[in-house]
Amino acid sequence: VIEMGTPERSVITTCAYCGVGCSFKAELNGDQLVRMVPWKHGKANRGHSCVKGRFAYGYAAHKDRILKPMIREAITDPWQEVSWDEALRFAADRMRGLQEKHGRRSIGVITSSRCTNEETYLVQKLARGVFMNNNTDTCARVCHSPTGYGLGQTFGTSAGTQDFDSVEQTDVVIVIGANPTDGHPVFASRLKKRLRAGAKLIVIDPRRIDLVKSAHIEAAHHLALRPGTNVAVVTALAHVIVTEGLMDEAYIRERCDWDEFSDYAEFVSEARHSPEATEMLTGVPADDLRAAARLFATGGNGAIYYGLGVTEHSQGSTTVIGIANLAMLTGNVGRPGVGVNPLRGQNNVQGSCDMGSFPHELPGYRHVKNADVREIFERAWGVNIDPEPGLRIPNMLDAAVEGTFKGLYCQGEDILQSDPDTKHVASGLAAMECVIVHDLFLNETANYAHVFLPGSSFLEKDGTFTNAERRINRVRKVMAPRNGYADWEVTQLLAQAMGADWAYTHPSQIMDEIAATTPSFAGVTYDLLDAEGSVQWPCNEAHPVGTPLMHVDGFMRGKGRFIRTEYVATEERTGARFPLLLTTGRILSQYNVGAQTRRTENTVWHEADLLEIHPHDAEVRGITEGGWVKLASRSGETALRAHLTDKVSPGVVYTTFHHPDTQANVITTDYSDWATNCPEYKVTAVQVSLSNGP
Ligand code: SF4
Questions:
Q1: Sorted alphabetically, which keywords does the UniProt record give (predicted)?
Q2: Four-way CATH pick for 71-141+360-456+484-500: 3.40.50.740, 1.10.150.130, 3.90.480.10, 3.30.465.10
Q3: 11, 16, 391, 583: least CB-packed within 10 angstroms?
């Protein structure tokens, strides 16, 4: 990154990487962005940032950006550059033709958690109001969909309960299935500050993450469980709390359904959930389970932070429910310093879920089967909305292979790289007759596309992102879109080409429509966001400047709901051929599949994905530090360099998934969460052996 003197002007906007949602001052000379300075008034970051938000914006100007629309008759044909009019006409005619031939439910959309709330709202509106079906899904399907289900069932709303500031009043922190130091660095700094001030830490993770080894943090409990056994550990913690009478009975009686609690208490009290029985399943010593449970129940304000190590399992939704149970059991929801906090991976995972991207929910998490809710949108949009829930991403791909799903508009998401079972994704895409990819780069999914619509970066548009604490932050246009149109404009042009009468001239009008149709956003306007800097939803008449803490006077659903959390072992089993368990994560300097971070000028960031393996497992295989190994599963195989470390236990290996060459999703299975189909990325039985390289 070259910094180029005193800037001529600056624009306040929001980082487009992780769910912390840091505010930045983008400084420019002319139309050239010269520096991103963390904004001291940003309520999520308070003047701090990490390396990605501060420096990794070079991709927006990268030569790989595709700036002209392209079409082709068949995916074996070469791409042909065309005008926007021609590309949109081609796409619209194909999609309409498919609907005439195969029915209105034969096409659909996939939205992106990278895009703004306004863009996401428009894409699901395209499906419901123009395609006339509910075939809309989001990349949150493969990350936090179990959060939506689990917190919705227990608390009544699918979001974190408290703001980041609240951590400063927390006494005991559980971090489960998350690595904030790498995944959410600015929040991790605040958490470490609180831990240095004396808060206690319980980490539940197969890997010894950085927080555990921090020299400043004493008495950290690390429950290094076998991958895939989160539910058993969380239930065992509840067992200790209930059988030792450590629960907050007054809170439960006042705030929760007592009958459901009684049933749950009976369930968790069974001997099969005792620490000793759980040790056999999970590998976590019984004494450690008991000590952690006592600490969480008696140590003061308790808060739970979790990530994809919770959700990306066949029992992801069950673990989210178990986490909510633990918080209610100990009276730890509804005041500062306590709560349940999903750490969202992408910048706008929260927002993409809020905006109705799921095939069964309209904006604001309201079911499409609810005629009263449909009527609100039918009046606003002037259409009749299909009352039948649509297809999830894996169902779209299945239906494509079966021949009933024919066309897809995919905005800002590379499903061939990021979704599980790459071969199946490729088969599904190849079977479709119109795939429209709308992205910055010619990504892997575009190999199967018939239309490529150039996307715009976060620097080139207005809108909002909603971070992990429900904070709606403004994204402001720093420069004109290099491709000619912001993403929301492209979606509108496609809708118009298909006959819609949409006529938005600025994203603020889209937000006004969201506010008019969605109670939790009823008070949100761009004027309010400009005045306040940001607000946390619900923002409405009752909470005119937003809601930092949820469930203060009662749960959104009324009484909090305890639900049994029966542990069911994943179908993915180790055995003689595949004796090790692979789990995955991220590194600080890279982001997801690396489409943005790998396209920066700073080559230091181009670290390869490594396979972490315990020295004992390495030694018996003759594997040495830095040597090539073959990583093989029942699904496929790839080659990586080995890193020997006792961060992972014997029997467990770990890698990141930032580089296309790693092909982590060639290895992973197609098992998924029972409630939401979120893929089980975090548990794969593998064999590791010496290799000569790729
Ligand atoms: Fe961006 Fe997240 Fe880093 Fe903040 S912590 S600068 S939001 S990547």
A1: 2Fe-2S, 4Fe-4S, Iron, Iron-sulfur, Metal-binding, Oxidoreductase, Repeat
A2: 3.40.50.740
A3: 11
Token duo for residue 212 = 């555990």
What was the pLDDT predicted at 602? Answer: 61
- Ligand 1 near 18 CB (within 6 A): yes
User: Which atom, in ligand 1's list, is nearest to the CA of 18?
Assistant: 2
Q: What is the pLDDT of residue 387?
A: 96
Task: Convert the pLDDT of each residue in 152-200 to its tens digit.
Answer: 999 998 889 999 999 999 999 999 999 999 889 999 999 999 998 889 9
Say if CB 630 and CB 582 are below 8 A apart. no
Atom 2 of ligand 1, nearest CA residue: 18
**Is 49 close to ligand 1, i.e. is its CB under 6 Å away?**
yes
pLDDT confidence of 1, banded at 50, 70, 90? very low
Report if pTM > 0.95.
no
Distance (angstroms) between ligand 1 centre and the Cα of 38 equals 10
Q: Which of 43, 184, 191 to mutate to test the pocket of ligand 1 (most atoms within 8 A of CB)?
A: 184
Which atom of ligand 1 is nearest to 467's Cα?
Answer: 7
pLDDT at 219: 58
Mutate to test the pocket of ligand 1, among 40, 49, 465, 588 (most ligand atoms within 8 A of CB): 49
Measured distance CA(459)–CA(278) in Å, rounded = 49
Q: Are 234 and 226 in contact (CB under 8 A)?
A: no
User: What is the per-residue pLDDT for 217?
Assistant: 57
Q: What is the CATH number of domain 145-342?
A: 3.40.228.10
Q: What does the DSSP 8-state code read for residue 227?
A: T
334 in contact with ligand 1, CB cutoff 6 A: no
Ligand 1 pocket: which of 24, 35, 52, 182 to mutate (most atoms within 8 A of CB) = 52
Which architecture, in CATH terms, is 580-690? Answer: Beta Barrel (2.40)
User: In this structure, which residue's CA is closest to atom 1 in ligand 1?
Assistant: 53
The one-letter amino acid at 608: A
Q: Is the pLDDT of residue 643 over 60?
A: yes
ipTM confidence: 0.99
Residue 89: which H helix or E strand, with range?
helix 84-102
Do 239 and 246 contact (CB within 8 A), yes or no? no
Cβ-proximal residues to 634 (8 Å cutoff; 6+ apart), any chain: 578, 669, 685
Averaged pLDDT, 526-540: 95
- pLDDT tens per residue, range 407-459: 999 999 888 887 877 888 999 999 999 999 999 999 989 999 999 999 999 99
Residue 443 CA to residue 596 CA, distance in Å, equals: 11
Q: CB of 43 within 8 A of CB of 493?
A: no
Residue 52 Cβ < 6 Å to ligand 1: yes
Give distance in angstroms: CA of 43 to centre of ligand 1: 13
Which residues in 646-670 are b (16+ Cβ under 10 Å) and which e?
ebbbebbbbbbbbbbebbbbbbbbe
Q: What percent of the chain has pLDDT over 70?
A: 96
pLDDT at residue 659 tops 90: no
- Look up tokens 């749960």; give the residue: 555
Homologous superfamily in CATH for domain 9-61: ADC-like domains (2.20.25.90)
| 21 Cβ below 6 A of ligand 1 | yes
For 13, 466, 526, 658, the CA distances from 476, given in Å and listed in that order, are 5, 14, 11, 28
* 343 touches ligand 1 (CB under 6 Å): no
- For the chain, the structural domain boundaries read 9-61, 71-141+360-456+484-500, 145-342, 580-690
Residue to substitute in 186, 465, 600 for testing ligand 1 pocket (most ligand atoms within 8 angstroms of CB): 186
Expressed in angstroms, the distance from the first to the final Cα of the chain is 32
